[in-house]
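User: For my dataset I need records formatted as: sequence, then structure tokens, nothing else. Please produce one.
Assistant:
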Amino acid sequence: MQAPPLSIVIVEILRHTPPWVWAVLVAITALGLWQCRTYDASRRRLLLAPIAFAAYSLWATCSAFGIAAAPAWLAGTALVLLAGRTWRPSPAAEPTADGRIVVAGSPLPLLLMWTLFALRYVVAVMLVFHPGWAHGAAMVVGMAALYGALSAVFAARAWGVLHAARPATTIQRA
């Protein structure tokens, strides 16, 4: 039996994708485009997006590979967060008088969200065609660590913004 042409396979994959998946893509695109422009936010709001992104990333890991993949996700997250502490590009951020932070726009959040979405989509489709791959150690550890690393880049950026917006302190000498 001959395999169908790739174009037909792609059309069938897209046709069988639930509508909520496209709604998520629209939502993250809107959120990412909003972050491409300069905006001001509270410290709490700056932390909300990385927490939500990490939760989505961990959910993607566990839904594809089971809860046993969580340690690999955590390892990927920890490695990037540790690297982010030593190499931290400082995003432009300025504190305001009312305690909010003005953050320079960046396409990075949008690119990270699209990357995680695409990765999640491709993995889901791949596991439909090859369900046994969800149990292969290399696949589970590699993908879980990658999901964690992506969420950690998002968190490291937020940490960099918060760090850059800290008011400078001066030390008075006696």
